[in-house]
Design goal:
Layout lengths: L6 H8 L11 H18 L3 H15 L8 E3 L2 E6 L8 E5 L1 H4 L7 E5 H8 L3 E8 L6 E8 L5 E7 L4 E2 L5 E5 L2 E6 L2 E5 L15 E6 L8 E5 L6 E7 L6 E7 L5 E6 L5 E3 L7 E5 L2 E5 L4 E3 L2 E3 L4 E5 H5 L6 E4 L5 E8 L4 E7 L2 E8 L9 E7 L4 E7 L7 E8 L5 E8 L2 E13 L9 E9 L5 E9 L10 E4 L14 H8 L4 E5 L9 H5 L7 H16 L8 E6 L1 H12 L6 E5 L18 H4 L5 H7 L4 H4 L9 E6 L8 H12 L4 E6 L10 H20 L1
Parallel strand pairs: 34-35, 34-36, 36-37, 37-38, 38-39
Antiparallel strand pairs: 1-2, 2-3, 3-4, 5-6, 6-7, 7-8, 7-9, 10-11, 11-12, 12-13, 14-15, 15-16, 16-17, 18-19, 19-22, 20-21, 22-23, 24-25, 25-26, 26-27, 28-29, 29-30, 30-31, 32-33, 33-35
Helix pairs in contact: 3-7, 3-15, 9-10
């Protein structure tokens, strides 16, 4: 007889590990500590582990790393962690100083000193500074790395918190300046003020010197929305206020807020991204869009005059249109130009586009260069309100990052100065013995899937190499070539081969690549990952006993599925800060915000496909699963530790080889500082080495 109960109620009656969902319960934390101790004793108590951890920590703490900066006002700011400043130091310098090999830095906020004074494990969440004067900032600080944070007003001129200034208690705050005496605040205003995704449902305007309770409501969203917010663009001459409603992860609405508080909707598709800069609006449709008698392809970049568009005009200029192998990566304004970054088979190309002086006609296009073979190049304007300066970075799997600075000419790149090297990242491992190659494989449905392979030169195809295969495969996030001293030291120098799989669900080929693996098509991520694994085995790069797989968050869900659906392909699996119980994920932490990605398990027709990619649901007794490690953090209020706890407990109950580690701090990154990061990374690598070598 079919049960009439909803799926959640059915599972609650059948779930022996539901008790682990009490995140901060003492019994549950004792269980986690006991499991941690077993894992540490087995994998983190050897001289080899200590050397591995220390090698990673040296990379993370290196004073030779490039201190990436952000221009705020006239100076350049950097948030820096090292051995002397494990929690971090917010500091600043001038451009002239920054050009020097060893710049002189001025300390703005010492987070270690603040944490000691406050008795809190503060983690930096960033600063929102009021332009164009840049005298005051709103600083966000998290306790232990959670997404929820506290907000305090900070004076950039005195480098002190403002006594009696704006402050917000711990919540998942969305806050921004309207002017020196007013904020737009979306926060936890009490019962009923948060969405089902655990984000603010109401945004208000708050005046200095008044209690938060007296703030005036600007907009209220629905309980089932993801979140709401409001902000002001203070660009001189183009000051505008906006209100946004995030319906789900991909759909949103934005309104122009007028002086009288009325709202005028920006009429673009809900699933499109719209960005307004000065007189221009750029639009990225996620699905094909027909408007003004023309149809624009999903993944395009379109430009229009904002005021004309709001007045009803629909004249759009196509700045980029994708094809089967090319997608938009990013774009960035300088004062007079737009830098557009595209990907061709996951390798970058840069163009500079210059709008017509009269706002009509064709945009001028010139190349800003492409990445070296199988590398990544990226460029962005430094101060879009003041000049045409830009930073450019070049990086590759074997090529440490180089940072350049350049200036675009008034009429485009023909007048530009050649970019000058500002900083070079050191080499943290000897890359001379390795090479990078890109391969393509056909997935189960015939789709061409790329992957990168970093391996010793003249690799012998004997099937005996220890391979670490990594992927993410969700939320339109691309995995591109980048330098990692940690992977170099922990994997490549130890004799391993490293593989990045650019599977569907990501953004490597634009929205279509992502949408091909949404909801009922989610298993395509697993099929793509498995196709790469099978190709590595067929090419005799490795064998199942020597092939390890690793992924985090959505990639951790992928790992749970590779464990339960393709166990024959792997010698060991590491799943980090993962979703795993897809029947209850919408009830846990911020899970409801991802219904657009995975589907709603409360709907029987959607649960029918969700259960096919729910590792917790699909783990069975009597199956030959490879050993698996599940890592998480108590303070992760995004995915939460519940998934990993329950999955590990179920695997043990079914008699499988499973390990678990829960960092009691760390948030969704599972670490609050470099030392914790080094430990968590080393644990995953050590686990794989132990099982793939045995």
């Amino acid at each position: 007889m079919t049960s009439s109960l909803p799926p959640q109620a059915v599972q609650a009656a059948q779930d022996d590990h539901l008790w682990l969902e009490d995140i901060d319960g003492e019994k549950q934390l004792d269980w986690a500590r006991a499991q941690n101790a077993l894992t540490v004793q087995a994998y983190a108590k050897s001289p080899a582990f200590e050397a591995l951890q220390q090698g990673i920590l040296e990379v993370l703490d290196s004073e030779e790393r490039i201190p990436m900066v952000r221009k705020i006002g006239k100076r350049f700011y950097n948030f820096w962690r090292d051995k002397a400043h494990p929690k971090g130091l917010w500091r600043r310098t001038t451009l002239d100083e920054y050009r020097k090999p060893q710049p002189a830095w001025e300390s703005v906020l010492d987070l270690d000193a603040l944490a000691a004074a406050d008795g809190e494990n503060w983690v930096w969440h960033g600063a929102d500074c009021l332009d164009p004067e840049y005298k005051r900032c709103l600083i966000s600080l998290s306790r232990g790395g959670a997404d929820a944070d506290v907000v305090r007003e900070f004076d950039l001129e005195t480098s002190r918190f403002v006594e009696g200034g704006f402050t917000l208690p711990e919540a998942k705050n969305h806050v921004g300046w309207k002017d020196i005496d007013h904020l737009y605040v979306a926060t936890d205003f009490g019962p009923g003020s948060m969405t089902s995704s655990s984000y603010p449902r109401i945004v208000k305007e708050w005046r200095r010197g008044t209690p938060l309770e007296s703030a005036v409501t600007v907009y209220e969203g629905l309980h089932e929305d993801m979140s709401v917010g409001a902000y002001r663009d203070n660009t001189p001459g183009f000051e505008r206020d906006y209100v946004s409603r995030q319906i789900d992860f991909y759909d949103s609405e934005t309104w122009l807020r007028k002086a009288d508080g009325s709202l005028a909707k920006i009429d673009v598709p809900d699933d499109a991204l719209a960005e307004i800069t000065r007189e221009w609006m750029l639009i990225e449709p996620r699905t094909d869009w027909t408007v003004g008698g023309a149809t624009y392809k999903s993944g395009s970049l379109l430009a229009t005059k904002f005021d004309d568009y709001m007045a009803g005009g629909r004249e759009l200029t196509v700045l980029f249109e994708p094809d089967d192998t090319t997608a938009l990566d990013s774009h960035s304004w300088t004062r007079n130009h737009l830098i557009v970054n595209t990907m061709h088979d996951v390798v970058n190309r840069l163009e500079v586009l210059t709008p017509p002086a009269d706002g009509k006609g064709a945009w001028k296009r010139e190349s800003l260069g492409g990445a070296p073979a199988l590398s990544t190049i990226a460029a962005g304007g430094i101060d879009e309100d003041e000049n045409d300066d830009y930073f450019l970075t070049v990086s590759g799997f074997l090529q440490p990052t180089t940072l350049y600075i350049g200036t675009l000419g008034a009429t485009g790149t023909s007048e530009k100065s050649e970019p000058q090297v500002l900083k070079n990242s050191p080499a943290f491992f000897d890359a001379s013995g390795f090479s990078v190659s890109q391969h393509f494989v056909r997935s189960k449905d015939g789709t061409r899937v790329p992957y990168f392979e970093i391996a010793p030169k003249n690799l012998k195809a004997d099937g005996n190499h220890h391979v670490l295969q990594y992927a993410y495969g969700g939320f339109e996030i691309s995995l591109q070539p980048s330098y990692s001293g940690s992977i170099g030291r922990a994997w490549l120098e130890q004799g391993g081969v490293y593989v990045i799989a650019n599977i569907r669900g990501g953004g490597e080929y634009g929205p279509r690549w992502h949408q091909a693996a949404l909801q009922e098509n989610r298993l395509r991520t697993c099929e793509d990952f498995a196709a790469v694994s099978e190709d590595l085995i067929a090419r005799k790069i490795t064998s199942p006993a020597h092939l390890g797989a690793m992924g985090g968050s959505n990639g951790g869900l992928l790992m749970g599925n590779m464990l339960t659906l393709y166990p024959q392909l792997y010698g060991a699996i590491v799943s980090e800060v993962a979703l795993l119980d897809m029947r209850r994920y919408t009830q846990l932490s911020a899970g409801a915000s991802w219904i657009a990605e995975y589907g709603d398990p409360e709907q029987p027709d959607e649960w029918a496909f969700i259960k096919t990619f729910s590792p917790y649901e699909n783990a069975r007794a009597g199956q030959a699963y490879p050993p698996a490690l599940f890592t998480t953090s108590t303070r992760d209020d995004r995915v939460g530790p519940v998934h990993a706890r329950k999955m590990h407990a179920k695997m043990l109950a079914l008699g499988h080889d499973s390990r678990f580690y829960e960092n009691l701090e760390g948030g969704h990154s599972a670490a609050t500082d470099n030392k914790e990061s080094a430990f968590m990374d080393a644990l995953g690598y050590a686990y794989l080495w132990h099982h793939l070598r045995s």
